[in-house]
Amino acid sequence: MLNRPKRFLKSIVLFIMIVSIVLPPAAIPKANAATTQITALATPIIYDHTAQVLGRIKITVPAGAVKKNDILIVKLPFALHDGISTTLMNEDDETPPQGTNYILVPKANNGLQKENLTVTPLGDKEFKITSTQDSSFANDLTFYILLNNVDIDKGYEGPVKVNFEGPAATGFPAGEVIPAFVVTKGTVQLSAEGIDSSNSDFSFQLQIKELILKSLQNGQNSIKLKLPTGFKWNRPTADSETVYYGDSIDFSYTVNANELEIHVNSSQTTKASMWDIPLSFTAHDDDRIAEGDIYAYVSGLTKTDVDRIKVGIYKDYGVSIIIDNELPTIMSGKSGQRISTIKIKEQVPKSIIAGRSLTLTLPDGVKWVDDDTDQDGINLGVPRVKSDGRTLNYTISGTSTDEASIELDQLKVAVRPGFTGNLGVTIEGAGIEKQILSVANVVKPVSITTTIVPDVVIGKSNQAMADLLITETVKEALKKDGAIQISLPSGVQFVEKPDVQVTEGNLYLKQISLINDHTLQVVIDAESIMPSAISITNAKLRIDRTVPEGPIEAEITGPALIETTGTTTLNGASYDLWKYGHTFHKIGIANVITLAPGKPISEKVEFKIDKKVYYVNGQGKSMDVAPFIEKSRTFLPVRYVANSLGVDTDNSLWDDDTNKVTILKGDRVVQLTIGSKIMLINGMAIPMDVPAQIKNGRTQLPLRFVAEAFGAKVDFEESTRTVTIQ
Q1: Fewest Cβ atoms closer than 10 Å to its Cβ: which of 2, 191, 416, 704?
Q2: Could you tell me if 299 and 427 lie in one domain?
């Protein structure tokens, strides 16, 4: 052995101490990681008789664990009939006679062989296994205990527990295993397979399964099945039984109304067996039958695992109709829109009557543009469409043997412009009671609002109309390449193209044009992925003298809003939808008033650039700031403009926290935020090309947006540097 310095040895000792402190015992590697196992390879159910066979027991011991003279004591709760064989076996030996209790030691790759172990009886309920040499360090020791002849005490019921023990130093395992379970009377499992839902005739397969041989008792009334009052058994067909496995049995039957007795005319089985018997019954008194599950109650000589079994479901004729998904939102003025899936399900077969008509009718204002067909035992076929386009008429063919379930998931409709609210389909016919089913919620594709409607007079040009805001109700409401048209009535014309912008969302516009002097057209370039809004501002009108006093209404039309024009064809039937002349919306944009002789339409107010004096109907008034021009933009002090137009000082409000001014004029609310290019009028966003600003302590508004804010006409005379507001 090499000599080591003392310092090195101390280091090794210190390292071992640290590891033993830091690591828990389980973390320190063991020399032998194999696990000892005592396993029951099967747990049969046996009777409380003599000469019973238990499940084989497998013992696995880690390599090198068993030493010479180690012992294992095996204890049973019951006597080993004829004891344990002292001759150990391996796979090369002849199989011992039936009913022999013995130990088998596999030959290949085993830690010990049969000649290295001995078996010694210690009475009729226990024995000892002794090793005659150390087991191999190369292979685990494995052996099997075969208990083929055990006398179970009469009346005992429960698990058979075999115990393994030995001295503390033995390498053999200790523990307990259960290789069998004892019953005093075998149990039969009963089940009904293939049960029917009906209101008249029922059939099913009665399955009888023994968990252990001799469980099915022979003799009269082996199993008795009793139905509820109102049902009658049909006599089973002789020799109709099927043997799944095990012994064939001679069955016979007695029927007494709702009672069925199954008799076994053979000896008890020699092995666990299973049979299938086709049974049927009928409903004969509907007044005594409740809708729902039908149970047969079990009694008789045989011990069964249940006291009742479900043998059918009683349902009256009828059909349930539901929508099978979330109620969709569709749009008025649009075509080819899918409604909810309609699911029609029979409660019992033949509820939907063959040869009859089934109709689906839409309300006035909605028409079919695509149908759907389906079949499930019954066949809807291709429907006829009535001339109004509102009714699909299916003719039923075929008869269902099971409850049919029909799904219509491809139905599509066109909706008249202006139709909104719940969309209901009326379904009736073919034995189905009339009902109305909600299949969609209809909304307008856009909402249209205005600012305060201004007063105008006839015979003048450059008169302001109300600003419009067109807001999508849902995303993609306005389709690519579709156009919106704003049409003015006779005698009213646009002076020039107004400002049109997307103020919310991500809609894109392709073309904005006046297609004539009274029609503005806006063409959509790309659809939105979130609801968007289009503002139409700074529109100037020319009012002919032929225009009557009262409101001026613009008509909102165009293919972006109305797709339901022309004719459609469905299954050979052609019918009109709705003419293009349907106006999507009419909205007031101005109000024509009659002026008294010599009376102006409003106050006339004049401001001069860089002057602190302004004039209201010729009367001079002073202010503490002056209008100014900055970067070619003319700015006016908001407070004095508002006062000159009749706004009380208390109705001009300033918020220091938000840098926002709010002006109240009648039913108009104007809000400006310093530095922002958005002006709000009654909540509608009006984009500005430059923001409002503060100069000399006063809020200043760009000239061109004064008219927007106060609903007034504004002119600028460049030669005199004068702003006139009316």
Answers
A1: 2
A2: no
